[in-house]
Write a structure and sequence with these properties.
transferase; Heat Shock Protein 90; alpha+beta; elongated; 431 residues; 5-stranded mixed sheet; 5-stranded antiparallel sheet; 13 strands
């Protein structure tokens, strides 16, 4: 199907929004991951330092209980056999001058700066593929109580780095899934955001097509009658009066269509003011009956107002009157000869219900959901015969929304219809 320029722009905008949502969401996810990594890294390093300090203090406590500390004594203590020791740990004991008396490693000493009660960093030389590589270590020096000795415990960052690398690897695995899921969700959100625009465009497009079709019919009738009149060499006034009458009917229909379209346009742009006032509902229905009495009599249709409570409602009289007129006019036009139209009103649970019932042709069940669509006609040929524009009920629906009311339909094909206007709130009985 060929897309219009507007549809292409809408799709382009949807894609652009999807990409934007994805990028923003991904940036937030990456920021959260980075924050988690930094916080966890800080926490694991603090825990790492605490374990080193605790280990050094524990060994210093043991040494403080020995009467004499010699190299032989230190070697015989098997300090490196502590069950909490790891393979990445080195223990060194030195005197006040910095001379190392004991080291748990056979390799060169850890290159650190001994500073009692503080952490420091050092380097441990390792043989990796016949090359000496200095491995970074973290060390803590603890003094031996009442002895001129210091215990230094140093550990590599292998365990810490391993955990952090695992976290980074997990993030790298998760991010592609986040991108895919975010992309799908973003496209869905973009579709939801653009959906009202697409719906408005479809309605506008359908409205334009329907309006063009409705105007085309009377224009075609006008042109056909003019062409026929011009082609005839007739000098009879009655003949031309007949043709002009048909043209006049077509023009009137176009006037009605354009007037209805302008009215709908005002409704859409909220250009109609609804002034609130107290409205006597029974009097309003009686006035509607009188307005359509002649049209109903010409079709031998009886229009009556049922007896009921005197009600008043706080709303716009002009708007409510227009809604009632539209529905009553349809009830008369789409009725059968000898039929009836009954207007009634009642109040239930703070809602005024104004009903217009007819014994007309009714509405098919499948047509009811679309009865308020613009230019929609359940009975197209009958509607054109009566001069209908297909906009009346659409106008009534929008007018009802303007005053906070709603319209309910009950209809049975071949039996008749009941339109009920529900005006909620501010409804009280007349005193």
């Amino acid at each position: 199907m060929r897309l219009t320029q507007i549809e292409r722009k809408v799709r382009k905008e949807k894609t652009r929004l999807s990409v934007r949502y994805t990028v923003i969401t991904l940036a937030i996810v990456v920021l959260l991951m980075a924050s988690f990594y930094l916080i966890y890294s800080r926490s694991i390093h603090d825990s790492f330092d605490a374990s080193i300090a605790q280990r050094a203090a524990s060994i210093a406590g043991v040494l403080s209980t020995k009467e004499e500390l010699t190299v032989e004594t230190l070697k015989s203590m098997n300090l490196s056999q502590n069950p909490f020791q790891t393979s990445n740990e080195i223990i060194e004991i030195s005197d006040a001058k910095g001379t190392i008396l004991f080291s748990s490693s056979d390799a060169a000493s850890v290159k650190i700066v001994i500073k009692s009660g503080s952490f420091s960093s050092g380097a441990y030389p390792e043989d990796v593929n016949n090359q000496i590589v200095l491995t970074k270590m973290r060390a803590y020096t603890s003094p031996v109580e009442q002895r001129p000795y210091y215990v230094t415990v140093a550990r590599t960052y292998d365990d810490v780095d391993g955990v952090l690398r695992s976290i980074i690897a997990s993030f790298l695995v998760i991010i592609p899934f986040v991108v895919v899921i975010t992309g799908l969700v973003s496209f869905k959100l973009a579709s939801l955001a653009i959906s009202p625009i697409e719906e408005s465009y479809r309605e506008l497009k359908q409205f334009t097509e329907d309006a063009s079709h409705e105007l085309k019919t009377p224009l075609a009738a006008i042109k056909a009658n003019i062409d026929v009149a011009l082609s005839k060499d007739v000098d009879e006034t009655q003949y031309y009066r007949k043709k002009l009458s048909v043209i006049n009917q077509s023009v009137n229909r176009m006037v009605n269509i354009t007037a209805s379209m302008l009215y709908l346009s005002k409704l859409d742009s909220q250009g109609i003011e609804a002034r609130r006032e107290k409205v006597d509902v029974h009097a309003l229905l009686e006035e509607a009956r009188e307005r359509f009495a002649d049209a109903a009599q010409n079709r031998t249709i009886e229009v009556g107002v049922a007896d009921g409570e005197n009600l008043e409602v706080l709303t716009s009289r002009e708007v409510l009157e227009e809604i009632v007129d539209i529905i009553v006019e349809n009830a008369v036009n789409f009725n059968r000869p000898g039929g009836k139209v009954t207007l009634a009103a009642c109040s239930a649970r703070g809602v005024v219900e104004i009903s217009i019932a007819d014994t007309g042709i009714g509405i098919a069940k499948e047509d009811v959901p679309r009865i308020f669509d613009r230019f929609y006609r359940a009975e197209k040929s009958r509607s054109r015969e009566t001069g209908g524009t297909g906009l009346g009920l659409a106008i009534a629906h929008d007018l009802a929304a303007l005053i906070g009311a709603s319209i309910k339909i009950e209809s049975q094909e071949g039996v008749g219809s009941v339109f009920t206007i529900l005006v909620s709130e501010n409804s009280t009985k007349l005193q």
